[in-house]
Amino acid sequence: MHLAIIGYGNIAQSVLRWLAARPVDQLSVLTRPAARKRVQQDKLLSAAAHHVFVTDSMDEMLAGHPDLVVECAGHQAVIEYAPKALKAGVDLVLVSIGAMADERLSQALKEAAIAGGGKLILPAGAIGGIDLLAALSLAGEVAVKYRGTKPPAAWRGTPAERATDLDNLSDMQVIFDGTARQAATEYPRNANVAATLALAGAGFDATRVELIADPAARGNRHAYDVACAAGRFTVQIDNAASPENARTSVATIYSVAREINRKRDPVII
Ligand SMILES: NC(=O)C1=CN([C@@H]2O[C@H](COP(=O)(O)OP(=O)(O)OC[C@H]3O[C@@H](n4cnc5c(N)ncnc54)[C@H](OP(=O)(O)O)[C@@H]3O)[C@@H](O)[C@H]2O)C=CC1
Ligand SMILES: O=C([O-])CC(=O)C(=O)O
Asked: pTM of the predicted model, to two decimals?
């Protein structure tokens, strides 16, 4: 298998650490230009694959004909690279799913996938239960309400800083209440799961979202309720935060790992 990864942050490096136990044949990594030389020297790479290529050019990466591209670099990187990968006919795992809250980008991605023949794969990421939600939404209208709770530090550098004094919170506080579209747009590094739920269920404008800063939170809690004529269910996940990036739950890393296995294994679940 030839695996290509866009980004070299917490998720990318953690996935490579996991790959060391079962390396891929070829690995291509797309970094920012300033990071290329440093990444090339990282020993994680040679443990994760038999042949390694590091580049700062998407065209160069695609010229190697990867079997699967995994984006784990953020919303801006989705805009820059995702349409190209899909147009080239390569399957693309999109971790920064919240970028699809932008209707024009979402449409462009679909058109690129149709034109090129590559599949746009939306992984479960930090959340679970997407299989049931997506299935129930085929039976009729679904109502979905999501609550995302993280420690105050995970909300630094976001609009939450304007809503509350994150450093001096003594109790949990709702820092956002609105639609999945607003949440994914305003919190691009924290509310991708809201977008995942929206795409699997009621859509970006009907999925209700509450984001909460809680000084007592030990990790990232994702909870949601689904109701429809075919049934109802509630999910609550208490995720450990990644040691390298507290905003990102460890589960996200293994959700990417699962998609890699789904591409290379004969039996998939
Ligand atoms: N679907 C889900 O459930 C979840 C999705 N996510 C998404 O995954 C993304 C990545 O998470 P994580 O790995 O923890 O974040 P990190 O910030 O640790 O890593 C992101 C990496 O991407 C690099 N990068 C950013 N823009 C570009 C670009 N244009 N070209 C090449 N590299 C680029 C960054 O480089 P630099 O440091 O130089 O900026 C950094 O190395 C998040 O931003 C979020 O959107 C996260 C958690 C859950
Ligand atoms: O990793 C998480 O817990 C969720 C997250 O950051 C996101 O949805 O963007």
From this structure: 0.97
Residues constituting the chain = 269
What residue spans of the chain are helical by DSSP H? 10-19, 36-40, 43-48, 58-63, 75-87, 103-116, 130-136, 160-163, 180-186, 192-200, 250-264
Torsion 253-262-199-69 (CA) sign: positive
Question: Looking at this predicted complex, what is its ipTM?
Answer: 0.98
**Which atom in ligand 2 lies closest to the alpha carbon of residue 248?**
1
Helix (H, G, I), strand (E, B) or coil at 208: strand
Is 222 among the residues known to form the active site? yes
CB 149 within 8 A of CB 172: yes
Assign 259 a pLDDT band (cuts: 50, 70, 90): very high
147 has which bridge partners?
Answer: 210, 223
Catalytic residue among 2, 51, 65, 222: 222
Q: Which two tokens stand for residue 254?
A: 């293994």
